[in-house]
Specification:
ATP binding, 30 strands, AMP binding, binds 5'-O-[(S)-butoxy(hydroxy)phosphoryl]adenosine, ligase, 19 helices, ACAS_N
Length: 649
């Protein structure tokens, strides 16, 4: 079957009331959005956001200059846009805890009051505009209040996913010199207790974290925790002392809203810095169009707020649009594999947003757990994090959505702030596995990675770049603008480089083919091979390591590590578990290698560069396709590695 044949028609009932209908309307809107940038985005920003001082300039700077600024003379406050301006009695957040019957409905008025108290508490602790505040929080409404409280007073939040280790937390707190850490006693997932405060305590022991003067602790479980007098305070007690009004800080459109650390192919994680107005506009705009969101509907994104998906599509985008957004604390398989669909039916969810890895995991349980629950409220089903394989797409579309819902496959990145390539419900027929067509304002470019030339027209494959600025682009890497330029803007001058490969098919649909750098995507989590390698060499027995990705049927990619030992006789029975423990300690459980093999050497070029391509092929059991190995310094290592890998897998 050719790709052209795979067009799945738009389920008409799902989009009867769509914001934009039909391919011709999509195309004319897209053209305006990229050609008449000032008129289009000026009008959108005026309509979608409340300004304290209206902007006059829409866009200043360029990708080639690395100085992009949107609405640079405008002033606003993000928390005001997300809370104050919506009807106080409307439900802002539906929180569902670890147990299905633990549900809270929080109105915009309640969220605003809590946010203001917290914002005042932060001010009392001495936090001022521009200061950094770290969040290491479970999935509770207070996490959203903490983010919005920072936005209220102009503090820059830095959320660290609560699965990262103390060492990873320490490195992030240090890099951005956070003044305060906001956390909870413990987290809870499928009855499993996660000792968050203990991780914070350990991280803050480090000399480099002396910048932290206060820790506010939300009581989630009431479990036993250590307490550091003078530094630690219960969040609830700090809030009770404050009044539920807090005058918002007047923020320039370009003032930083938050930092979010993400992995690159080399070096330490990068603190991507997002702006106030451009980011907020981008998340609200894309949330409205991609999910065809209409006020009054319940919308659910089941990601964690520790990732950009949670920032943009649980908190900022939906709340800016006055939506009712679901926050889900538990796991898709707790208490059983029907939990998501139970959630959908009990809260009458209209759009549901998850990752292919979760869909693949649930598919294994068959259709019965899905069919047990009423899904008639659903209209739009979203996917994010990695390419969705057509089998998973079809199951999502046919079984979960009963063929009545639009599936939107949203391609984007921490750096892009929001959706870049996705189909839009009601606009385009869908193709299982293709992220489809650009979001308004996005001009995708395929570039030949060798020649650096543009690949125009259909039936082309290259690396994916973006040809012009969009409001949600991250503005810099915290403390390292040179690295920002080197990573994103210099590789293909004039363009933003995504790091992904992409193919344009005969219909002009885009198919993301995966990262072209040394970045892994494990269960939708982004990890640098270099980070895992340096974690492995922290182990005293390991002198060198090389990490590659291998296909994994649920996680998308699995982690395969080759380790060279200081002394081959050290390869005892507990070595592999202790190497894995070293990775968990340096990064967190999410980075634990699936396979580790010990080897006396690695395939290197004569100049000493590890040939990852060869290691990847061997780990994927495709040693018959090694390609050219004539540049190897010592080819004799290859048969040995092949033998070891075959034994290990
Ligand atoms: C990388 C970005 C975007 C929020 C979650 C991940 C991959 C993401 C898709 C998709 C194909 C995708 C890319 C990208 N990716 N969504 N729909 N189809 N690939 O954000 O951690 O910054 O990772 O995830 O490789 O570069 P992130």
């Amino acid at each position: 079957m050719s790709e052209e044949d795979q067009l799945t028609p738009i389920p008409e009932r799902a989009v009867a009331n769509a914001h934009i209908r039909g391919m011709h309307n999509y195309l004319s809107t897209w053209e305006k959005s990229v050609d008449e940038t000032d008129a289009f985005w000026g009008a959108e920003a005026r309509a979608a956001l409340d300004w304290i001082v209206p902007f006059r300039t829409v866009l200043r700077g360029s990708l080639s200059g690395g100085d992009v600024a949107w609405f640079p003379d405008g002033y606003l406050n993000v928390s005001v846009n997300c809370l104050d301006r919506h009807p106080a009695s409307r439900t802002a957040i539906i929180w569902e805890g670890d147990e299905p019957n633990d549900v809270k409905h929080i109105t915009y008025g309640e969220a605003l009051a809590a946010t203001c108290r917290l914002a005042n508490a932060l001010r009392t602790l001495g936090v001022r505009k521009g200061d950094r505040v770290c969040l290491y929080m479970p999935m509770v409404p207070e996490a959203a209040y903490c983010m919005l409280a920072c936005a209220r007073i102009g503090a820059i939040h830095s959320v660290v996913f609560a699965g990262f280790s103390a060492e990873a937390l320490r490195a992030r707190v240090e890099d951005s010199r956070c003044k305060v850490v906001l956390t909870a006693d413990e987290g809870l997932r499928a009855k499993k207790v996660i000792k968050l405060k203990a991780v914070v305590d350990k991280a803050l022991e480090a000399e480099e974290c002396k910048c932290v003067t206060a820790v506010l602790v939300y009581k989630r479980t009431g479990g036993a925790i250590d307490w550091k007098e003078g530094r630690d305070q219960w969040m609830s007690e700090a809030m009770e002392k404050e009044r539920p009004f807090c005058a918002p800080e007047v923020m320039n459109a370009e003032d930083p809203l938050f930092l979010l650390y993400t992995s690159g192919s080399t070096g330490k994680p990068k603190g991507m810095m997002h702006s106030s107005a451009g980011y907020l506009l981008w998340t609200a705009f894309t949330h409205r169009y991609t999910f065809d969101y209409h006020v009054g509907e319940v919308y659910a994104c089941v990601a964690d707020i520790g990732w950009i998906t949670g920032h943009s599509y649980i908190v900022y985008g939906p709340l800016c649009n006055g939506a009712t957004t679901v926050m889900f604390e538990s796991l898709p398989t707790y208490p059983d594999a029907g939990r998501y669909w139970d959630l959908v039916s009990r809260h009458q969810i209209a759009s549901f947003y998850t990752a292919p890895t979760a869909i693949r995991a649930l598919m294994k349980y068959g259709d019965a757990p899905v069919k047990k629950h009423d899904r008639s409220s659903l209209r739009v089903l979203g996917s994010v994090g990695e390419p969705i394989n057509p089998e998973a797409w079809k199951w999502y579309y046919e079984v979960v959505g009963e063929g009545r819902c639009c599936v939107v496959d949203t391609f984007w990145q921490t750096e892009t702030g929001g959706h870049m390539i996705t189909n839009i419900p009601g606009c385009q027929p869908m193709k299982p596995g293709s992220a489809s067509l650009p979001m308004f304002g996005v001009r995708p470019m395929l570039v030949d990675p060798q020649a650096g030339v543009l690949l125009e027209g259909n039936h082309k494959e290259g690396v994916l770049c973006i040809g012009q600025p969009w409001p949600g682009i991250a503005r810099t890497i915290w403390g390292d603008h040179a690295r920002y330029l080197d990573t994103y803007l210099k590789p293909y001058p004039g363009y933003y480089f995504t790091g992904d490969g992409c193919r344009r098919d005969g219909d002009g649909y885009l198919w993301i083919t995966g990262r072209v750098d040394d970045v892994l995507n494990v269960s939708g989590h982004r990890l640098g091979t270099a980070e895992i390698e340096s974690a492995l060499v922290t182990h005293e027995a390991c002198v060198e390591a090389a990490v590659v990705g291998i296909p994994h049927d649920v996680k998308g990619q699995g982690i395969f590590a080759y380790c060279i030992l200081k002394d081959a006789t050290e390869e005892t029975a507990d070595l592999i578990p202790s190497l894995k423990a070293a990775v968990r300690a340096a990064i967190g459980g999410l980075a634990t290698p699936d396979h580790i093999i010990c080897t006396p050497g690695l395939p290197k070029t004569r100049s000493g560069k590890i040939m990852r391509r060869v290691l990847r092929k061997i780990a994927c059991l495709e040693a018959d396709q090694l390609g050219d190995t004539s540049t190897l310094a010592d080819p004799s290592i290859i048969p040995l590695l092949i033998e070891k890998v075959e034994k290990a897998l």
